[in-house]
Amino acid sequence: MSMTKRDWQSITLSAVLLAVAACLPLTGDAYMLSIGITIAMYAVLATSWALFSGPTHYISLATAAFFGLGTYTTAIGIENGLNYWATLPIAAVLGAVLAALVGLATLRLSGVYFVIFTLGLAELVRQVVTWGQNVSGQKGLYVLTDITEVHIYWQLLVLGGIVYLTGWAIGRSRLGFALRIIGDDEEVARHSGINTSRAKILLFMVSGATAAVVGSMLAPRYIYIEPALAFTPMLSFLVVIMALLGGTGRLWGPLVGVIPFTLLWEAISASFPNQTTLLLGLSFLVIVYLLPRGFVGLIESGKRRMREREAFA
Amino acid sequence: MTTGPTVLSLRGATKRFGGLVAVNDMDFDVTEHEVLGLIGPNGSGKSTTLNLISGALKPTEGTISLRGTPISHLSAADIARRGIARTFQLVRLLPSMTVLENVRAGAVFGHRRRWGAEADAHAMRMLALVGLDRRANAHVGELTYIDTKRVELARVLASEPKVLLLDEWLAGLNPTELEEGIALIKRLRDEGRTIILVEHVMDAIRSLCDRCVVMSTGTKIAEGTPEEVLSDPEVIRAYLGDDDA
Ligand SMILES: Nc1ncnc2c1ncn2[C@@H]1O[C@H](COP(=O)(O)OP(=O)(O)O)[C@@H](O)[C@H]1O
Ligand SMILES: [Mg+2]
């Protein structure tokens, strides 16, 4: 299919926004940069999560497993003399392979089992890594590089750009159409000739590979990583909440949720450091009850109401 | 009209649900360009037979072949790609999509696969065939009942199937709609399509079917022209013995 004028407009707009975001380090404000990294990280994670979960409605709680896998790939790679840049594609491949295995094992199951399985998987991987570290006698690993916060930030922006382009391309492809059909009615999808397992596994692999690369990119920021940090289930839940807050019906939806929620979350974690889990649960309930389709849903029903009013005026 | 080559054949097709034998040792053939009526009282196993053919369910025993090639071990998706397409007894549409997108699903992923402008043009032709081209951009939630059935039929036709399975496509229509519906299927018949029609409406069976297979409690009890089977004492008994008939 050829590109329409609107396609070019949205691509140009996205490129401009990305360029503006890339200028953030020029302010020289370390706190701003630190929040910028957190936002960029969650934006990439939530957008790639929604690539899979948006159309299929499968809720994955395995983000932490992929993220931690990437973090450890980079840490172990650097410890064994690999160049940092070489560890990123390795993490992507490992993330995709793990996603394919999980997908093969679970995507035939119904949604509920999938949620439980992915949560269990993340915990299992964390326990295995903890056990592995105990055997080797270390609690964690040092990730010593000359990569600065600014570099991490820019890397995340580039990855974000790649995820957007990928999501945009998938949305226009047969695969994207197949996923929308699967999300609407899997029985119809199968009877229309769609290999539903393959479509879901492919998208889950994209999502898993991306989360693993994000983990790799963040490893140098932590300097010292241990399983409890790299595989924290909190990460999986935050990604789900932010993506749902923004709305998964549009490619830009998760980003709209990530920015306000990260800022809010920064404030909350600073003021109530001991109640974060409780507040996380509360935010989840509030979002699901008040904004079931996220900001995207709110914006689109607002637009529809405007149109209707114009039509009647 | 049993002159053409055999397109689909069932041999000993059986489906058990626990102790219940829903389809019992079914044998029949469908030849090219034939409209085969699959009739019988409610619960006699007609939908289950279609489910076995379309791959929604795997037969417990027996084989189903398309042009001599066994297909009963294949997934529903593979069977659809080989050219068997179906409607569902309870209409199934894609609720988040427009009429055109629903039909495009068949054009893009079915037996003959298209994409882009070609898929859209083909989907529009199918919508015109079922008389819905003017509602192409409507949301499926806005449609009347018969129009939802038309969309489903157009989606199925868009895949250019070799065999079309229609599960009570005429059920639930009011008298005017029924007339339109019968005319529509008649047009498909005149185009030379191969169709298995599960149906209760006697007028439709008489005017549309070349041949009928009659089922009762999972078993084939008669086979022949509509006149033959509808005057068969065993068929009459099966129908009269059932309250829903
Ligand atoms: N998935 C299923 N599980 C258990 N029993 C089923 C299932 N599908 C159909 N049946 C049973 O099989 C029998 C035949 O059903 P069906 O094929 O729907 O009949 P028909 O379409 O002729 O009305 C019925 O007794 C029905 O209850
Ligand atoms: Mg039925």
Task: Give a count of the beta strands of chain B, DSSP E runs of length 2 or more.
Answer: 10
CATH architecture title of chain A: Orthogonal Bundle
* Mean pLDDT reading of chain B: 93
Q: Find the count of extended strands of chain A (DSSP E, 2+ residues).
A: 2
Measured on Cα atoms, how large is the radius of gyration of chain B?
Answer: 17 Å
Stretches of chain B where pLDDT is under 50 for at least 5 consecutive residues are: none
Task: Tell me the overall shape of chain B.
Answer: globular
What's the SSE pattern of chain A? HHHHHEHHHHEHHHHH
Protein name (chain B): ABC transporter
Pfam families (chain B): ABC_tran (PF00005), BCA_ABC_TP_C (PF12399)
GO molecular function, one term (chain B): L-valine transmembrane transporter activity
Keywords (chain B): ATP-binding, Nucleotide-binding, Transport
What does this structure look like?
The complex is a heterodimer of chains A (313) and B (245). Chain A has helices at 5-22, 30-56, 63-79, 84-106, 111-136, 149-171, 174-184, 186-191, 196-222, 227-230, 233-246, 253-271, 276-290, 294-312; strands spanning 141-142, 224-225. Chain A has 313 residues and is an all-alpha fold. Chain A has a single domain, classed as ABC transporter involved in vitamin B12 uptake, BtuC (Orthogonal Bundle), CATH 1.10.3470. Chain A is globular and about 70 Å long. With 245 residues, chain B is an alpha/beta fold. Chain B has a domain at 1-74 and 163-169 and 194-245: P-loop containing nucleotide triphosphate hydrolases (Rossmann fold, 3-Layer(aba) Sandwich). Helices cover 37% and strands 25% of the residues of chain B. Chain B is built from nine helices and ten strands. Chain B has helices at residues 46-54, 76-82, 99-109, 116-129, 145-158, 175-190, 202-208, 226-230, 233-240; strands spanning 6-17, 20-31, 35-39, 61-66, 69-70, 84-86, 163-167, 194-198, 211-216, 219-224. In chain B, strand 1 (6-17) and strand 2 form a beta hairpin. Chain B starts with 5 loop residues before the first strand and ends in a 5-residue tail after the last helix. The A-B interface holds A 1, 174, 177-178, 180-181, 183-185, 187-196 and B 54-56, 75-78, 80-81, 85-86, 88, 92-97, 104-106, 108-111, 113, 115-117, 155, 159. The complex binds adenosine-5'-diphosphate and magnesium ion (MG). Adenosine-5'-diphosphate is lined by residues 17, 20, 22, 40, 42-48 of chain B.
